[in-house]
Specification:
By secondary structure, the protein is of the alpha+beta class. It is built from six helices and ten strands, in the order E-E-H-H-H-E-E-E-H-E-H-E-E-H-E-E.
Length: about 190
């Protein structure tokens, strides 16, 4: 388990599936994490969520340090080990949007992927109308690398998917912390970016 200022980042547990199905059944969340139709997910979808969490190279359940309340999930999937490219994903419960939890989790997980997994780049895809996420990714050093135009029909209109990436040297330049705050895991100190 890792900690940041306000979060515990822990491994997937069986009980997380209940929280994940609720998260993925929230239309406000679905709107930003899938280009599939926004529909309720059936109970069998829980198995898909479990398999996905277990297949990620790095998967964290995000919970509040103060209360243990489920906040969301964050992950890195290294789909191309030869190229050391990790694909980043995050989903938070809407009541935690706009409070800096996404930045806190993203900064730690992406930094940890560079440090511990040895990836040389982190990639992601984000819908253009998720302006808060696009802004956060740019602040973290991500650059737009491409755009799939009119790929998602949602709420009566088309929207683009933006493909972004950050290289290890770019990350190190943008995310320098002179005080070197740390996150801890079972007594092991890890430099946090």
């Amino acid at each position: 388990m890792f900690t940041t200022d306000r979060l515990f980042l822990r491994a997937f547990e069986e009980s997380d599936v209940e929280h994940l199905i609720i998260l993925h059944n929230d239309a406000r969340v679905q709107r930003f994490i899938t280009n599939e139709p926004i529909v309720p997910r059936p109970p069998k979808y829980k198995e898909r969520l479990k398999q996905w969490a277990e297949q990620c190279s790095l998967y964290f359940t995000l919970v509040l340090r103060e209360t243990g309340e489920f906040v969301g999930q964050c992950s890195i999937m290294v789909q191309e080990p030869k190229n050391r490219d990790g694909f980043f994903g995050i989903a938070l419960r809407p009541e935690f949007w706009g409070s800096g939890y996404g930045q806190e989790a993203s900064k730690f997980v992406i930094g940890y992927a560079f440090q511990a997994l040895g990836v040389q780049r982190v990639s992601l895809s984000v819908f253009e109308e998720n302006e808060a996420a696009v802004s956060l990714y740019k602040r973290l050093g991500f650059k737009e690398e491409g755009r799939k135009r009119r790929c998602n029909w949602v709420e009566g209109h088309w929207e683009d998917m933006i493909h972004m990436g950050v290289l290890d040297d770019e990350w190190a330049t943008v995310n320098v912390d002179e005080n070197h705050p740390t996150a801890t895991s079972s007594g092991v100190t890890i430099v946090r970016y």
